[in-house]
Structure formats: structure tokens, C-alpha cells
């Protein structure tokens, strides 16, 4: 299964280079600031946007996102008619690759960084407009509020040219551990610290019927495919698979370091004891959510620190007695743990294809996200619908059920293309039900985490050419086999040697050269 996918992807990416060249050659490029449609200087603009649904339930369930009331309101506030086309988050990379192969582009496009394996070839082929001049001439808010550090991110710029407008990471440690506090209280469990403590807590979740139904149907810890939201043990050993470590003059991917063998041994034990969800290796987001929120039978999970309140409210809609608590991640041999300390730039950024005949309209649209009325909308929604105004005070209808929570994610998360987080609004947070849980999560996230010595690095050339050498390729295949008992962990050194032989040594050389130049 894995080999077939790798071969297909390699073939697709190889073909794309030829497709890009042809597309760029026959497309009519628009110079920065040119206004062919005549709409940039007045009147309502029409902008076609391709973006991911971000796995947000309310977006996935929408029968017609273009006509959603919140989408229309954003259009009204920005004087723009928005024509949104969605790409499924679960299949985002494949769909993005197919879009590039097809050669038909929107006016504005959400992409997973200009240095991602899918987008980097398109940047090199001239599919996207350099934005420096457009920003300078037409985007005073972008110039004022986006920091130089964000502009310099390789997710955003290449060779001094800005190719995308960045979103912002409010919580740079992107994930925290959440547990069922009601289960811990019922079983008189203390907050775990070490891996051994965590394993013992999970065993109690498995064996002691914390949900009280007598069925022993509890799932101690659940995660998702490719170890997504399941990296806590890797963090304890400082080998988070996506990250890099500079050791003895070389920048090494964590997944080939010796400590990875120790971490995989723990995952194997947790899997064998059914302390870790035995479906996690293939589990999609909807199934992950259904177990945690619908059945309410998951004791521990990992997710974004910015909205644990929403998780609690949604779990309580089906399990009213449920309570969540955010706790520090397990610590390893060095007494540290946590997830990756990320870039101040979000993983998704906004680029303008060269086929856009009115790029000024697109850049002005994004610039308006910093306007006060747009910021109010992105935090509180629509006046008369989700809030009222009493003098200068905003009376917000904080969501109390699953439907209203999902509606809230439409304007607070899905439509917040760029700009500050609603969590930076102290008044909003202090009045929010379970707002203390958000504060707890943010505080935990600030006090833990692992440094990534490859932070800010563009993907090495060989990784773009040989995607099977990335974390989600050969390594995930090997790790899955080890954890499920289909391959011996003793073969780890052989895996590393094979990875290096297939091109890994070149990947390390390229990454090391980047590190030497970046750290001068």
C-alpha cells in the first residue's frame, strides 16, 4: 500500500514540472499593480478563492459555503463578492497536486507554505506573483502589522521575494495534552509527569471503568493517522518526527536518531496493551472526533491549545458529566517534554497566482482583515445574530451547545485568513465560559516544548525530488510495522542505513548547508 502511494506521488510530481513550464509559458502574467478588470479602484470586487475546509465540521456540513451568512458578511465588510472553492483537509495535499496539474487557478489561493513539496515547484515555475510591490503600494495594514520575522519565513518568502501573506500562530507550541478530569477524580489519580506515570494513568483508564458503564469500552489515549496528535512520547525523547537536530556538525532528521528507537519501543508497548487506540494509524479526523465528542469514551487526547473550551462543551453535549483538564506533556530522560515550538507563521499562507487579472483587488482584500469592523466580525460574528451592542459594550452570545460552537468556528477560525487571534482579546476571553481552560492551555504550552533546529528551513531539494524520504514516507511505513508487531524494532539501524542509501545522506548534506548559512 505504502509503496504504491509513493510511486504514484513521485510520478505525479515529476510530471508537474513539465506541466508548470507549459502553463507558465502560455499564461498571460499580470504585472504587480495592474488593474485589468477596473474593479480595484472602486465598486465591488469578485474574488475566486481556493482554500481548505480545515476539517471544520460546520464547513464540511455546509450545503453551499459561498452563500453562508458569515461568508456573505465578510464579503460585505470587505466590499468583495467571495466565490470560495473548498479542498478537503483530509486529502488536501493530493487535491492541491491535482489542481497544479490541471493548471486552472483561482484569484487567491491558500497553500501549505511556499516551500512545501506541493508548492515549491510551482514557485520555481512562476505560477505565483512576487508580492513585494503590491504590498508596498496597496497594503498599509500588512506592512504595519506583519513582522519582519514573519515576512522572512521560508513559508512566505524565497530569495528575498515575498510569495505569500502569512497567517499568525498565537500559540507557537501547537499542541497540548488534554485529559478527562472527571475520570482522574473518580479514580483518585494524580497528574502524571513521567512516561511511566502516564502509562499507569492510561492503565487505570483501561481497567477501572471510569465512565461507569461496566463495559470496559474506554479508549485510554486516541490519536490520528501518521501520528498526528499522537507525538507526546516522541516529545519526551526529543525526537518529534517532523523536526531536526544539529549534532556533531550535521543537521539530522529526528526520525533516524538513536533515541527514536527508544520512543518507538514505548509506542509499541502502549499499542500492545491497548493503552493507545489501535485504530490510530489509519484514523481520520471525523472518527477521532466521534470517539472523543460523540461517544465520550476517550481518556486522553492531544490538540490545539487555543480552544479546549470548545472540546469540553462538545463532549458535554453528549456526556454532561465530562470535564477536561490540560496537563503538561510527559517528560523524558532529560526531564523535558512537549511538542514542537513552532514558527510565528501559521502553516497555511495566502498566494496570488499569475493568472489573476486583478492582483490589486486580492491584496487589498487581505489588507482589510486588519480593519476594526472586520476584526469585530471575526471575533463576535454578526450584530443582532451572535451579539448586541449596549453603548460601547458588546454583549456576545457565547455558544453553549455543539451547533453554536461549530457556527462560531466559521467566523473565528475558518474565515480568519490572517490577522490577530480572537484569543488576544482579553475582554472576550475573560467573559467566556471555560475561558479559564483556554488560559490554562496557553500557559502549559508556553512552559514546555522542543526546539526544532530545522525551523525556518526550506525543504531540501532531494526531499522534493524523493518525497518517500520524508517523515510520512518510509519512516511512517517502518514505524507502523514495528508498532503493530509486523517488523522487529531491532531492524531500526537497517532502516536508517537504507534511508541514507536511498538519498538520505544527500538530504542531510543539503540541510546542513542550509544550517551553516542560516546560523552565520
Mean pLDDT: 89
Helix content: 40-55%
CATH homology superfamily name of the largest domain: Periplasmic binding protein-like II
Second CATH tier, the architecture of the largest domain: 3-Layer(aba) Sandwich
User: From the helix content, strand content and strand pairing, which structural class follows?
Assistant: alpha+beta
Q: Under CATH, the topology of the largest domain is which?
A: D-Maltodextrin-Binding Protein, domain 2
**Tertiary shape:** globular
Assembly form of the protein: single chain
Number of domains: 2
How many helices in DSSP terms? 22
| Main beta-sheet strand count, sense and barrel state | 5 strands, mixed
N-to-C CA distance: 43 Å
Amino acid at each position: 500500500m505504502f509503496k504504491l502511494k509513493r510511486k504514484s506521488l513521485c510520478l505525479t510530481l515529476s510530471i508537474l514540472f513539465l506541466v508548470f513550464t507549459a502553463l507558465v509559458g502560455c499564461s498571460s502574467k499580470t504585472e504587480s499593480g495592474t488593474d485589468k478588470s477596473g474593479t480595484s479602484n472602486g465598486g465591488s470586487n469578485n474574488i475566486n478563492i481556493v482554500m481548505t475546509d480545515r476539517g471544520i465540521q460546520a464547513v464540511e456540513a455546509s450545503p453551499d459555503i459561498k452563500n453562508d451568512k458569515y461568508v456573505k458578511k465578510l464579503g460585505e465588510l470587505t466590499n468583495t463578492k467571495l466565490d470560495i472553492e473548498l479542498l478537503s483537509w483530509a486529502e488536501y495535499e493530493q487535491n492541491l497536486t491535482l489542481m497544479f496539474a490541471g493548471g486552472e487557478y483561482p484569484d487567491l489561493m491558500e497553500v501549505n507554505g511556499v516551500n512545501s513539496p506541493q508548492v515549491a515547484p510551482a514557485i520555481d515555475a512562476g505560477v505565483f506573483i512576487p508580492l513585494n510591490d503590491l504590498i508596498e503600494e496597496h497594503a498599509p495594514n500588512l506592512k504595519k502589522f506583519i513582522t519582519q520575522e514573519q515576512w522572512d519565513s521560508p513559508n512566505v518568502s524565497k530569495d528575498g521575494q515575498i510569495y505569500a501573506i502569512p497567517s499568525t500562530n498565537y500559540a507557537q507550541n501547537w499542541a497540548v495534552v488534554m485529559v478527562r478530569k472527571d475520570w482522574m477524580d473518580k479514580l483518585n489519580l494524580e497528574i502524571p509527569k513521567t512516561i511511566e506515570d502516564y502509562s499507569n494513568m492510561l492503565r487505570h483508564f483501561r481497567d477501572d471503568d471510569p465512565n461507569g458503564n461496566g463495559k470496559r469500552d474506554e479508549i485510554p489515549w486516541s490519536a490520528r493517522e501518521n501520528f498526528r496528535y499522537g507525538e507526546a512520547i516522541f516529545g519526551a525523547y526529543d525526537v518529534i518526527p517532523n523536526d531536526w537536530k544539529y549534532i556533531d556538525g550535521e543537521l539530522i532528521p529526528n526520525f533516524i536518531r538513536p533515541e527514536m528507537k527508544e520512543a518507538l519501543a514505548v509506542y509499541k508497548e502502549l499499542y500492545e496493551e491497548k493503552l493507545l487506540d489501535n485504530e490510530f494509524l489509519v484514523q481520520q479526523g471525523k472518527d477521532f472526533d466521534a470517539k472523543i465528542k460523540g461517544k465520550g469514551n476517550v481518556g486522553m487526547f492531544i490538540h490545539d491549545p487555543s480552544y479546549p473550551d470548545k472540546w469540553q462543551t462538545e463532549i458535554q453535549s453528549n456526556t454532561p458529566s465530562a470535564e477536561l483538564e490540560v496537563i503538561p506533556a510527559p517528560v523524558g530522560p532529560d526531564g523535558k517534554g512537549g511538542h514542537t515550538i513552532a514558527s510565528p507563521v501559521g502553516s497555511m499562507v495566502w498566494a496570488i497566482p499569475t493568472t489573476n487579472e486583478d492582483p490589486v483587488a486580492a491584496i487589498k482584500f487581505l489588507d482589510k482583515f486588519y480593519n476594526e469592523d472586520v476584526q469585530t466580525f471575526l471575533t463576535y460574528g454578526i450584530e443582532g445574530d451572535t451579539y448586541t451592542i449596549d453603548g460601547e459594550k458588546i454583549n456576545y452570545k457565547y455558544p453553549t451547545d455543539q451547533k453554536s460552537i461549530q457556527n462560531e468556528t466559521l467566523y473565528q477560525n475558518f474565515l480568519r485568513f490572517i490577522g490577530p487571534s480572537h484569543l488576544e482579546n482579553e475582554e472576550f476571553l475573560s467573559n467566556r465560559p471555560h475561558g479559564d481552560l483556554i488560559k490554562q492551555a496557553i500557559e502549559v504550552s508556553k512552559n514546555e516544548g522542543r526546539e526544532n533546529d530545522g525551523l525556518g528551513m526550506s525543504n531540501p531539494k532531494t526531499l522534493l525530488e524523493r518525497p518517500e524520504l520524508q517523515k510520512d514516507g518510509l519512516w511512517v511505513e517502518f514505524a507502523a510495522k514495528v508498532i503493530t508487531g509486523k517488523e522487529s524494532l531491532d531492524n531500526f539501524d537497517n532502516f536508517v542505513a537504507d534511508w541514507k542509501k536511498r538519498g538520505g545522506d544527500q538530504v542531510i548534506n543539503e540541510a546542513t548547508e542550509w544550517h551553516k548559512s542560516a546560523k552565520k
